[in-house]
């Protein structure tokens, strides 16, 4: 008999959590109330106990996934039931598996295939192998990581066994149906060895946890440390029992460095003398795509930028007045992005050509707003899309921005989450930019650039007063948007932010 493991009640106003750590693997035997996994919310950490004794037959929500209240986490086969035997690994849509037909009890080779990469993505580059030929692997253990134009894709082991062959080395480009490697499941004997290896790993894991250090750091963290030449001992782990996560490595990279040794005496300037002080690194596929798309945008669109400035006094006052109540009720902080998103939606209704695109000799007007929110990540700029933002409340927008931003930083955005945007907002102010001209995100016809809020003297009713001011920039495609429309759009955004009540009145 199968027993469902579901997300427990998370607390008042908390509607979702992230799966932080699984303490068990499929096939492991568990006792009733034994800890299976740990969930993290924006407020607390929640441990999930086993509702019954038996065998963990399937993990539905992997580490790093966001789940809602009562969502299905895993399945247990109760001890003594017909279904308590360890299940045979089964292929899924995103983990295609091809197995050689063999007699019962004999060895079987399982092909490791490229998983589904997303719509319109036909190839990827093998970024990192976490295992080498001869290594014993458990089912769903990370074998390698692929890099596409947009996202990084981790490839799990489709079955337990031994990695006998690697067919695509690091740096190789593979298509969407390519074979990456071969795992020998080894029939009954190998399965027993794999189970023993899993048991050994679990015992080692328990011993390590008693010493306060997890066995395995996050694969994305190990990859980043290898790329940047960072020793794990120099990184403080924030995961379960000291497990190093990707964000821990990023913090270590930005931490103040110790005083450098005195610089060597300058050498004679010459190209040959400088060559050994240079480092040549191949551009990632994401960086290549960013470069190509931005240059295509400049070459294709008749891009022009118009500027204005906004007094942020009223928005800041409104935010300060309600931010505590907002957080208590909705479980998310009230930021400035929701105000700007609402103001842009308001302006797009009056100037619909800014929310349109050119398709050949046609103009396609969008009767919806799929808002792109540009986000800088350690690997480059990405633009996750908040679909139907015009139908959302302030709280819904803030939750969506927080969720997409976290996924972007962790490299977990799917292709679908970055496609179909109709307008984009880019906030260079978080980096201290005072003024810039954003580049269009094709095929969109408009992008709003936000900048740093800075106190400046302003003339208000004949008096010089200090106000928190922000420069705004709207880059637009002059082929479809006239100057009048662009200026009107930016003025409407300015008016809505300087008097937020206009958003409520739809004025």
**Terminal-residue CA separation:** 60 Å
Structurally, the number of domains stands at: 4
Q: Could you say what the CATH architecture of the largest domain is?
A: 2-Layer Sandwich
The name CATH uses for the topology of the largest domain is Chloramphenicol Acetyltransferase
Number of strands: 27
* Estimated helix fraction: 25-40%
- State the major sheet: 7 strands, mixed
Q: Quick one: CATH class of the largest domain?
A: Alpha Beta
Q: Categorize the overall geometry.
A: globular
Number of helices: 10
Overall mean pLDDT score? 79
Q: Let me know the CATH homologous superfamily of the largest domain.
A: Chloramphenicol acetyltransferase-like domain
Note poorly predicted spans.
82-105, 187-192, 206-215, 259-265
The chain-level structural class is alpha+beta
Walk me through the structure:
26% of the residues lie in helices and 28% in strands. The strands form seven sheets. Strands 17, 20, 23, 24, 25, 26 and 27 form a seven-stranded mixed sheet that branches. Strands 1-8-6-3 form a four-stranded antiparallel sheet, with no helix packed on it. The protein has ten helices and 27 strands. The radius of gyration is 27 Å and the shape is globular. It is α+β, with helices and mostly antiparallel strands and 507 residues long. It has helices at 187-210, 219-228, 246-254, 271-275, 285-300, 313-330, 337-350, 394-410, 483-498, 501-505; strands spanning 2-6, 16-22, 29-30, 35-40, 45-49, 54-59, 66-68, 72-78, 109-113, 123-129, 136-137, 142-147, 152-156, 161-166, 173-175, 179-184, 303-311, 356-359, 362-365, 371-373, 375-377, 380-382, 385-386, 423-427, 446-450, 454-460, 463-477. It has four domains: 1-86, Beta Barrel (OB fold (Dihydrolipoamide Acetyltransferase, E2P)); 88-211, RNA polymerase II/Efflux pump adaptor protein, barrel-sandwich hybrid domain (OB fold (Dihydrolipoamide Acetyltransferase, E2P)), CATH 2.40.50; 222-253, Dihydrolipoamide Transferase (Irregular); 286-505, Chloramphenicol Acetyltransferase, CATH 3.30.559.10.
């Amino acid at each position: 008999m199968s027993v469902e493991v579901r997300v427990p009640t998370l607390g008042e106003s908390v509607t979702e959590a992230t799966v932080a750590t699984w303490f068990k693997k499929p096939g492991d035997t568990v006792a009733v109330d034994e800890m299976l996994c740990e969930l993290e919310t924006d407020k607390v950490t929640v441990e999930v106990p086993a509702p019954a004794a038996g065998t963990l037959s399937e993990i539905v929500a992997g580490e790093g996934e966001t789940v809602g209240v009562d969502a299905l986490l895993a399945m247990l086969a109760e001890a003594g039931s017909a279904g308590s035997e360890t299940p045979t690994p089964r292929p899924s849509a995103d983990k295609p598996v091809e197995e050689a037909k063999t007699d019962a009890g004999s060895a079987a080779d399982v092909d490791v295939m490229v998983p589904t990469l997303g719509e319109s993505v036909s190839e990827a580059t093998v970024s990192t192998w976490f295992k080498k030929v001869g290594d014993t692997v458990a089912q769903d253990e990370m074998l390698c990581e692929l890099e596409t134009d947009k996202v990084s894709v981790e490839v799990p082991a489709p079955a337990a066994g031994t990695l006998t062959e690697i067919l695509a080395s690091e740096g190789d480009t593979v298509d969407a149906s390519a074979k990456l490697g071969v795992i020998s499941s080894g029939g009954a004997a190998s399965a027993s060895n794999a189970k023993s290896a899993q048991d050994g790993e679990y015992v080692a894991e328990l011993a390590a946890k008693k010493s306060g250090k997890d066995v395995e750091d996050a694969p994305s963290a190990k990859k980043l440390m290898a790329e940047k030449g960072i020793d794990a001992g120099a990184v403080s782990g924030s995961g379960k029992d000291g497990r190093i996560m990707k964000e821990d490595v990023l913090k270590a990279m930005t931490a103040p460095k110790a005083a450098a040794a005195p610089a060597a005496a300058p050498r004679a300037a010459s190209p040959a003398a400088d060559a050994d002080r240079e480092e040549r690194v191949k551009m990632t596929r994401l960086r290549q795509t960013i470069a190509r798309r931005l240059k295509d945008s400049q070459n294709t669109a008749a891009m022009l930028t118009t500027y204005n400035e906004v007094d942020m006094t009223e928005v800041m006052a409104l935010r300060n007045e309600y931010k505590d109540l907002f957080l208590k009720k909705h479980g998310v902080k009230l930021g400035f992005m929701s105000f700007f998103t609402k103001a842009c939606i308001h302006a797009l209704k009056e100037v619909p050509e800014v929310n349109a695109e050119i398709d050949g000799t046609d103009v396609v007007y969008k009767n919806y707003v799929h808002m792109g929110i540009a986000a800088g990540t350690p690997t480059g700029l990405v633009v996750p899309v908040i679909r139907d933002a015009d139908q959302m409340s302030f709280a819904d927008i803030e939750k969506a921005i927080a969720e997409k931003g976290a996924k972007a930083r962790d490299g977990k955005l799917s292709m679908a989450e970055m496609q179909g945007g109709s307008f984009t907002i880019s906030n260079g102010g978080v980096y201290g930019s005072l003024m810039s001209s954003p580049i269009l995100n094709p095929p969109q016809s408009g992008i709003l650039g936000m900048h740093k809020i800075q106190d400046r003297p302003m003339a208000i009713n004949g008096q010089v007063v200090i106000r928190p001011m922000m420069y705004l920039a709207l880059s637009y495609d002059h082929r479809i948007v006239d100057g009048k429309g662009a200026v009107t759009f930016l003025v409407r955004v300015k008016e809505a932010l300087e008097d937020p009540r206009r958003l409520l009145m739809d004025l």
